[in-house]
Design a protein that fits this description.
CATH topology: Rossmann fold
Distance between the termini: 19 Å
Radius of gyration: 14 Å
Order of helices and strands: EHHEHEHEEH
Helix content: 40-55%
Number of helices: 5
CATH superfamily: Dehydroquinase, class II
Low-confidence stretches: none
Strand content: 15-25%
Bound molecules: 1,3,4-trihydroxy-5-OXO-cyclohexanecarboxylic acid
C-alpha cells in the first residue's frame, strides 16, 4: 500500500511557526514519524509540501496512479481551495483530512473546509498525533475496503 502525505502552505515553517498553536515538531520530524509509522503498519509513506495551490494540485494528479490514499493537511487551502478539493475528487482516492490545531475552536473562517465533504474523515486538534491518527485511520479504511471487495 502506498500512502501520500500532503502538506499545504506554511507548514514548512513548523517548529518555529506559532509553536503555541502548532507545537514544536518540524515538518521533517513529522515526515520521519509518518515513514516510521508507515513501516510499523506495513505501508509505504511519501510526503510532499508546497506553498502553492497549483503545486499541490499538480502533485495530487501526478502521484495518484501510484497512491492508494492521501493524508492531507491542506493548511490555509483547506478553507479556500476548490481546486484542491476538485483534484482530490478527480483522482478518486480516499483521503483523511488532518489538522494540528483544532480548527473549530479558532476563527470562524477556519470552520469551513472545502475538503471535508469528500474525506473519509477529519482529525483536528491533536498536534502530530492528528497525522498519526490520520494514517492509522486511512490504512484501516483501505484494508476494510479491500476485504469487502474481495468477498
Ligand atoms: C492547520 C489549520 C489551518 O487553519 C491553518 O491555516 C494552517 C494549519 C493545522 O494544521 O492546524 O496552516 O491546517
Amino acid at each position: 500500500m502506498n500512502i501520500e502525505v500532503i502538506h499545504g502552505p506554511n507548514l514548512n515553517l513548523l517548529g518555529r511557526r506559532e509553536p503555541e498553536i502548532y507545537g514544536r515538531a518540524t515538518l521533517a520530524e513529522i515526515d520521519q514519524e509518518m515513514e516510521r509509522l508507515g513501516r510499523e503498519l506495513g505501508v509505504r509513506v511519501r510526503s510532499f509540501q508546497s506553498n502553492h495551490e497549483g503545486g499541490l494540485v499538480d502533485h495530487v494528479q501526478g502521484c495518484a496512479a501510484d497512491a492508494d490514499g492521501f493524508v492531507v493537511n491542506a493548511a490555509a487551502y483547506t478553507h479556500t481551495s476548490i481546486a484542491l478539493a476538485d483534484a482530490l475528487a478527480g483522482v478518486a482516492r480516499p483521503y483523511v483530512e488532518v489538522h494540528l490545531s483544532n480548527v473549530f475552536s479558532r476563527e470562524r473562517f477556519r470552520h469551513r473546509s472545502y475538503l471535508a465533504a469528500g474525506a473519509v474523515g477529519v482529525i483536528s486538534g491533536f498536534g502530530v498525533d492528528s497525522y498519526r491518527l490520520g494514517l492509522r485511520a486511512l490504512v484501516e479504511h483501505l484494508k476494510a475496503v479491500r476485504k469487502y471487495e474481495s468477498t
